[in-house]
Amino acid sequence: MSRTYQVYFTEQAASARDRLDDHQRSAFDKGIALIACDPFLDLSRPISATGDDRTILLTQNILVEYTVSLGRLLIFIVEVFSNKDALVTDTDG
Question: Could you say which of 5, 10, 81, 91 is the most buried, measured as most Cβ atoms within 10 Å of its Cβ?
Answer without folding.
Answer: 5
